Amino acid sequence: DAKTTQPTSMDCAEGRAANLPCNHSTISGNEYVYWYRQIHSQGPQYIIHGLKNNETNEMASLIITEDRKSSTLILPHATLRDTAVYYCIVMDSGGSNYKLTFGKGTLLTVNP
Amino acid sequence: DTAVSQTPKYLVTQMGNDKSIKCEQNLGHDTMYWYKQDSKKFLKIMFSYNNKELIINETVPNRFSPKSPDKAHLNLHINSLELGDSAVYFCASSHSAGGETQYFGPGTRLLVL
Known about the structure:
The structure holds 2 protein chains of 2 kinds. Chain A is mainly β. Helix content of chain A is about 0%, strand content about 45%. Chain A contains no helices and 9 strands. Chain A has strands spanning about 10-15, 20-25, 30-40, 45-50, 55, 60-65, 70-75, 85-90, 105-110. Chain A is globular. By secondary structure, chain B is an all-beta fold. Helix content of chain B is about 0%, strand content about 55%. Chain B contains no helices and 11 strands. Classes of the chains: A mainly beta, B mainly beta. The interface of A and B includes residues 49, 85, 94, 95 and 96 of A.
C-alpha cells in the first residue's frame, strides 16, 4: 500500500510555478522521497528524490519539511508538456529487493 | 537510442491464447521489472529480476511466466489469456535492486477479447 497522500488533481497556469504537495507522515528515517510522473500513454518518468535536504535538478525542486512528514515538488515554470500524473513515493534505498509502490498520484493540468 | 524498449506496442488477442511481450534495456542495468497498469490506472509491480534471478514475485497468477535470458532482456509470457489481463504492461530497469531510479519502457497495450 502507498504510504503517501496527494491531492487528486491540481491546475496551474502555463509559465507559473506548480507546487505539488505530498504527505508522508509515517516515513521512517532511512526512507527516501521519490517523485515520478506519467504523461498520458507513456511510461512513468523519474523526476527527483531526496532524504532530508532540499534537492534541485534540471526538472524540478524538492522541498522536504524538517520533520520529513511532508514534501513539495516544485516545477518552476510549468509548460503544457508538464501535464501529467505526478506520483510521490517513499522507499528505502540502499538495501535490496525494493520496489516502487505507486498510489493514485496527482493529475496536474497545465492550462494555457 | 531507446533506453528501455518493449515489443509489441499493441497486442490484441482472443481469450485462451498464449502471448509474449519482450523487453530490452541498453543501459547496462542489473535489475529489470514488469508492472501492470489496469483500466483504473493503478500501476502495480508484478516481477523483478536481478542478474537473471527472480527477486520479486507479487503473487501474480502462474499463467504469467517471466524469463530473463540475460541481464538486458526480460520477457513476459502469458498463458491462457483472460479478459482481466487486458491492461498496459510496463517494463523498467534500474542499476541494481537497491531502490535506485527506475527507467520505464513505453508500455505494451494488451487487449483480450
